[in-house]
User: Which sequence fits this backbone?
């Protein structure tokens, strides 16, 4: 009998929020550990923006009024509840120790959400030039909020911190732009920065189906008036998401069957299948320049939602604002896990210490204490990152480390994987048949969501399928540590005119466990341009180069490196019809089998390239 993952009621709501973008800061702790009402006074305000729109804001001030305290602001689209001046949350701030350390905690419903006025726009486009009071964005709303708070909230020390997770991370990143002078420290955590290239809804142009469907079904419906709110999670009527999404049909059928024109965010996505102006306007990275506040970006190696955002925000600030006090911390976490549990394990993986507690106490709290209260401390290094495989924290002066050396692992004959490329000889290929009506699942056990631990699951469930190519290296005679992006180069041909190519890099343990180190997808029609897709020519070899998110991982002595190559990853990624069409408008007849070929000859050498950390850099 098939087994399903079924999660019901409030727990499903919690999981779905975490899966996409809703790590709610006010309920991140599962049990009260500090008496908030005894130590804090709550007051609610409606703060006017420059265009007259008023944003609902809850402020928790220390009852001890003998001192002056920094303001710690969180702007969220997921509600600042509980509402009412007599209703208090279980905890305040990014971690429980913040309340004990005494801040003025500020939570705000962003424009057009819950109790705030105005119109909500997903990933609000940034206006670099503002010609009048009607030209507003999340940067200006943050500025106006801080200006009002500093002038109107008693006992503040005129120093402000800003933080947020996932969608909240986007609002924190937006607050960095043209920041208010009082804003001294910002921590964007798993920030969304680009919904087409690598965050939440797409990776390299390929649509992330489960996360986007769940999020839009719960948080994308039209509401009363101009405000939008999140409602109940979608009722699938089954725990088998694989079969549900197959039965749904193409993406074009989702609205007709389930959304009925009432989910404008979904409708908008379905009308913009290339990296056009809508998506470019929602890329916040080009606007992050001349950043004045100190920045601590936070990400997780196993965050399937917004690890792209964390890496690229940090890198962009380094490049476009080199004078900024800029640091990054990356731990062995799924989406938002660093805020809500001890971080000692994920799925089958065990890390040997409470990494979440360590980060919150040793990195995040000292960062704000230093910049908002003038205490000694701050981030331990420019890059404070966790080395999976070896299970230890590492400190680097840059990320990725500059000391790495590029090394390629070549796909070879009979499923081999080697650092030695093929010798001269006739073209050699491996091939498989990809059937979009029988796609490769992304998990061994069917689920209706993008489970937080899917990247930590044993990958043997897919290795024996005929539509998955497996390449395995020899036993390692010494440890091998890779640090930075993982870069596949595939020479492919197909009988179709489009296709997806998924590459998984796997650590094979001595007991046979296949630990997924990194996996990602590229959509072949975007191989030259995300703006102007091009069909593949049947039978003609095409080169696919793409970059997967960074890793810091040690393959231990006695382990093996393995690579899987496949053309579907369902329902994590939507099905590619394997014909060159607008996939968002594809019909059932468009989905066709295709024979996929991987070339591994001397002059068409498919490979995966790592950045290897020299042994002398390993403690």
Assistant:
């Amino acid at each position: 009998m098939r087994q399903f993952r079924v999660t019901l009621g409030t727990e499903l709501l919690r999981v779905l929020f975490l899966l996409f973008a809703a790590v709610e800061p006010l309920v991140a702790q599962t049990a009260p550990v500090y008496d908030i009402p005894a130590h804090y006074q709550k007051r609610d305000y409606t703060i006017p923006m420059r265009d007259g729109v008023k944003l609902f804001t809850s402020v928790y001030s220390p009852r001890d009024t003998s001192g002056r305290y920094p303001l710690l602001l969180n702007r969220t689209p997921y509600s600042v509840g509980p509402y009412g001046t007599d209703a208090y949350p279980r905890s305040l701030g990014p971690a429980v120790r913040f309340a004990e350390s005494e801040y003025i905690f500020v939570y705000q419903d962003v424009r057009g959400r819950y109790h705030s006025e105005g119109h909500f726009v997903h990933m609000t486009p940034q206006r670099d030039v503002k010609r009048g009071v009607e030209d507003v964005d999340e940067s200006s709303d943050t500025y106006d909020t801080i200006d009002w708070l500093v002038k109107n909230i008693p006992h503040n020390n005129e120093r402000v911190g800003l933080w947020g997770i996932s969608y909240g991370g986007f609002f924190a990143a937006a607050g960095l732009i043209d920041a208010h002078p009082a804003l001294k420290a910002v921590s964007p955590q798993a920030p969304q920065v680009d919904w087409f290239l690598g965050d939440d809804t797409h990776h390299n142009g390929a649509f992330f189906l489960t996360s986007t469907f769940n999020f839009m079904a719960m948080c994308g419906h039209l509401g009363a008036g101009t405000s939008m709110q999140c409602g109940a999670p979608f009722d699938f009527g089954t725990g088998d998401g694989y079969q549900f999404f197959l039965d749904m049909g193409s993406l074009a059928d989702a609205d007709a069957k389930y959304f009925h024109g009432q989910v404008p965010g979904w409708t908008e996505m379905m009308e913009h299948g290339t990296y056009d102006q809508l998506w470019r306007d929602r890329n916040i990275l080009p606007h992050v320049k001349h950043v004045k506040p100190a920045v601590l970006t936070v990400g997780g190696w196993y965050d399937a939602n917004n690890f792209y955002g964390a890496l690229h925000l940090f890198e962009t600030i380094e490049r476009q604002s080199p004078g900024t006090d800029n640091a990054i911390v990356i731990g062995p976490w799924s989406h938002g896990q660093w805020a809500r549990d001890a971080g000692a394990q994920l799925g089958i993986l065990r890390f040997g210490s409470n990494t979440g507690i360590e980060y919150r106490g040793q990195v995040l709290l000292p960062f704000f204490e230093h910049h908002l209260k003038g205490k000694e401390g701050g981030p331990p290094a420019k890059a404070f990152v966790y080395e999976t495989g070896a299970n230890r924290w590492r400190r680097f002066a840059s990320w990725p480390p500059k000391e790495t050396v590029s090394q390629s692992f070549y796909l070879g004959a009979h499923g081999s994987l080697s650092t030695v490329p093929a010798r001269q000889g006739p073209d050699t290929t491996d091939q498989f048949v990809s059937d979009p009506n029988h796609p490769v699942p992304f998990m061994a056990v069917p689920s209706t969501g993008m489970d937080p631990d899917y990247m930590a699951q044993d990958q043997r469930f897919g290795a024996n399928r005929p539509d998955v190519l497996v390449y395995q290296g020899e036993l390692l005679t010494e440890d091998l540590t890779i640090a930075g992006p993982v870069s596949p180069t595939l020479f492919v041909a197909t009988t179709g005119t489009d296709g997806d190519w998924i590459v998984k890099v796997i650590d094979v343990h001595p007991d046979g466990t296949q630990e997924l180190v990194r996996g990602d997808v590229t959509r072949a029609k975007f191989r030259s341009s995300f703006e102007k897709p091009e069909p593949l020519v049947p039978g003609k070899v095409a080169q696919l180069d793409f970059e997967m998110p960074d890793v810091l991982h040690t393959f231990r002595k006695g382990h093996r490196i393995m690579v899987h190559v496949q053309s579907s990853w369902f329902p994590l990624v939507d099905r590619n019809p394997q014909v060159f069409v607008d996939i968002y408008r594809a019909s059932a007849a468009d989905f066709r089998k295709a024979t996929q070929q991987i070339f591994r000859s001397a002059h068409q050498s498919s490979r995966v390239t790592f950045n290897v950390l020299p042994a002398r850099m390993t403690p």
In short: The longest helix spans residues 355-373. The longest strand covers residues 480-494. Residues 405-617 form a domain with the Jelly Rolls fold (CATH 2.60.120.260). The chain has a mean pLDDT of 92.
